[in-house]
Write a structure and sequence with these properties.
Blueprint: H1 2-12, E1 24-30, E2 46-51, E3 56-61, E4 65-69, H2 74-82, H3 85-88, E5 89-92, E6 103-107, E7 128-132, E8 135-139, E9 144-151, H4 156-174, H5 184-189, E10 195-201, H6 204-219, E11 225-236, H7 242-252, E12 257-262, E13 271-276, E14 279-284, E15 287-298, H8 303-315, H9 317-334, E16 338-343, E17 347-350, E18 354-365, H10 371-378, E19 386-387, H11 389-399, E20 410-416, E21 423-429, E22 433-437, E23 440-449, H12 455-474
Parallel strand pairs: 1-5
Antiparallel strand pairs: 1-9, 2-3, 2-12, 3-8, 4-7, 6-7, 6-20, 8-9, 10-11, 11-19, 11-23, 12-13, 13-22, 14-15, 14-21, 15-18, 16-18, 17-18, 20-21, 22-23
Helix pairs in contact: 1-4, 2-10, 6-12, 7-12
This protein binds the ligand C=C(O[C@@H]1C=C(C(=O)O)C=C[C@H]1O)C(=O)O.
The ligand C=C(O[C@@H]1C=C(C(=O)O)C=C[C@H]1O)C(=O)O binds next to strand 11, strand 15 and strand 23.
Length: 476
């Protein structure tokens, strides 16, 4: 395969417009054989985005270019870069795959540059990031391709040298021998399956106190809703296997977006991993889709009990209220930018660890509106922050005893649409996530506090949310 790809690169390189003074060139080559698994390289910058139900996988390796931003203008600064791509990013697709080069777009919950990092799980992520990988992989149910990108101007020799340095380890990882089955008994004997909590912020008593303080603000009419969150740090008996973790999450949460992001080459490298059910936005052409998700109950042991829990969730005044704030805020955010707004009837989204009230919202964006304009108005929704937005944000910054970092930020892909000249994108809210470094992991989960919230029940809800990642971590 390496020889085949090397020969194809050599054949195309002389014809690529590499001497243009600015911008990028991407060359997309179909893979004759789709990879069986998601290729993980042992070091260097890489990201993976998988949604099992959608049958789609995107990965990126190395950095052809990246831009970092922070502050109130962070998204507009990145927008200024991406808006040049229609003219500055040449897409060469000799196999007619229809897959252009794409970038990762991600940002932290808040726009300030400051991130608190624990020694064990240094986040190693900038506040907001736009990143074009040197080699990207895209796989759907029917096809797979590698997309080689280089910043201009360059020479065929330099481009080839950069790509080959990554391609050799990548091709080896594309078609690996079958991984040995997980030896549960051996792991258990080594005590490796036990996860030990090392840090809990806030603890249970402080949590209850904070919920009561939030309720005072809610009863006083200062806040309508605020999404309070927790941080849990754990260690395991061994280093986490990120490849297994990605596979386990993709199996356990097939409707969720699984994200695995390692931005740095520094060792030990930190990974941000998420299995999120919540789409901030999906934009293709002029059509935008947004998930309003809020209102949660656990799963039950039997189908009957489960159905009873779903029915109770649909009828719960408290959950319907916290859900309504999100639907209304999504609607208000989209209204000035879109036409034909439609909300689907209320649904219950059932995940392995929890069930949520869910209202999908779709609309047609007005001409000239792009993913950055939409993200700017939508994020953060009251699903992760609160209502009113600015008051909730200020209250959380004053009361949550840690910095959220990228938890409740967003991440996903963004790519030029070669037919419209616009940008397509798929961004997910970073929930059910962990920062992982070696044998340590830092997890976050939150729950929406509204009139009628009970501190203990809200704590239980965060436990159910944390269990998404904890369950998977126990087996990797
Ligand atoms: C804040 C989280 O989840 C959000 C809050 C929910 C709720 O309060 O019911 C449900 C889904 C998410 O929108 C989290 O998972 O940490």
């Amino acid at each position: 395969m390496l020889d085949h790809l090397r020969a194809r690169l050599a054949a195309h390189l002389p014809h690529l417009p590499l001497t243009r003074p600015t911008g990028f060139v991407s060359l997309t080559l179909a893979l004759p054989e789709p990879p069986v698994r998601l290729p993980q390289l042992s070091s260097g910058a890489q990201f993976h985005l998988t949604q099992t139900h959608a049958g789609e996988l995107r990965s990126g390796y190395g950095v052809a270019a990246e831009w970092q931003a922070s502050g109130t203008q962070r998204l507009q600064q990145l927008a200024a870069v991406a808006r040049t791509w229609a003219t500055d990013w040449q897409q060469v697709d000799p196999d007619h795959t229809g897959y252009p080069g794409f970038a990762l777009l991600g940002f932290a919950a808040a726009d300030s540059a400051e991130l608190i990092s624990l020694d064990a799980t240094d986040h190693q992520l900038p506040n907001a990031l736009l990143w074009i990988p040197q080699i990207a992989l895209r796989k759907t149910a029917t096809a797979a391709a590698l997309i080689f990108t280089v910043a201009l101007p360059t020479t065929p020799e330099r481009a080839l040298q950069q790509w080959l340095a990554l391609l050799a380890p990548l091709v080896t990882a594309l078609y690996p021998p079958r991984a040995p089955a997980l030896q549960l008994r051996a792991l258990r004997e080594r005590g490796a399956l036990s996860l030990t909590p090392t840090h809990l912020l806030p603890n249970y008593n402080d949590w209850c106190q904070l919920v009561r303080q939030a309720l005072v603000q809610i009863n006083a009419g200062v806040l309508s809703k605020v999404v309070l969150s927790r941080q849990l740090t754990i260690t395991a008996g061994r280093e986490f296997d990120l490849e297994r973790l990605h596979g386990a999450l993709a199996d356990l949460f097939p409707s969720c977006q699984i994200i695995n992001l390692r931005h740095t080459a520094a060792a030990p490298a930190a990974h941000l991993v998420a299995a999120t059910p919540e789409r901030l936005l999906h934009l293709r052409g002029r059509r935008v889709e947004v998930d309003a998700i809020a209102g949660t109950v656990a799963r039950a042991k039997s189908a009957e009990q489960d159905a009873a829990l779903s029915a109770a969730l649909r009828a719960s005044a408290k959950d319907l209220l916290e859900h309504r704030y999100v639907v209304d805020a999504v609607w208000a955010a989209l209204l000035p930018l879109c036409s034909g707004l439609e909300t689907s009837p209320l649904q219950v989204m059932q995940l392995n660890n929890a069930q949520h009230l869910w209202t999908p919202v779709v609309a047609e964006v007005n001409a000239g509106v792009d993913v950055f304009d939409l993200a700017e108005r939508l994020h953060p929704t009251p699903a992760t922050n609160g209502e009113p937005r600015a008051t909730a944000r200020a209250w959380l910054q004053a009361h949550e005893p840690f910095s959220r970092g990228w938890y409740t930020g967003a991440a996903g892909w963004i790519e030029p649409d070669v037919t419209t000249g616009g940008l397509n994108a798929d961004l997910w809210v970073l929930l059910r996530c962990a920062h992982i470094c070696g044998a340590a992991a830092e997890l976050h989960a939150g729950s929406g506090i509204v009139t009628g919230s009970d501190p203990q029940a809200e704590w239980q809800e965060t436990e159910a949310k944390l269990s998404a990642m904890l369950t998977a971590l126990q087996f990797v």
